[in-house]
Design a protein that fits this description.
The protein is mainly alpha-helical.
Length: 197
Amino acid sequence: MRNKKILFLSCAALAVTLITGCSEGDAESKDDGVVSVPETGGGGKGGATKSPVADDSDSGRPQLRLDTTDIEEIRMYQGYLRCLKDHGVPLPPKGSKMPEADPGTLWFPGMDVAKERPEAEKACLGKRPLPPPELDPKKNPDYMDDYNKWIACDNRRGLKVNPLPDGGGWNYKAGVTQPRNADQIDKECMIEAFSGK
């Protein structure tokens, strides 16, 4: 089972796939089965990655929490997505990706905006939600310990994954049938590991 994921929980993956905090190819998702932890200044939905156009000023940006729901997250991203659209970034129709979303909800672009449209990313950065501080290795001195607990919890609960050496995400273990509630398991494990519960 190969799932698209990014955790922008940036990018994006909200999915929305759990990046992990989010579910569905967020985001920003890739077909390589890699779940990426969002980074401040570039990670997040829509496949955005850390970029030199990122500004260090976080003032006024929406702040995601570990327990932010998928629907809350997509709502928090609407200002950023509207800005991208206003700057000419093509956005796909919502479709059936999140049927419970409000009518008119904008969806994440199918591109890495920071790489493909850096001028739009720079203009809209101040509206893009920040990932939970616990998921930022620069803000969480225990990040790698928490990350290892997250991976261990996933595997213990039946979501068989292999960690990436840099702590930036994980890959599904090859040849293993993953549980139907994989996104729920991953989100619960991430919250448990990074909140210290």
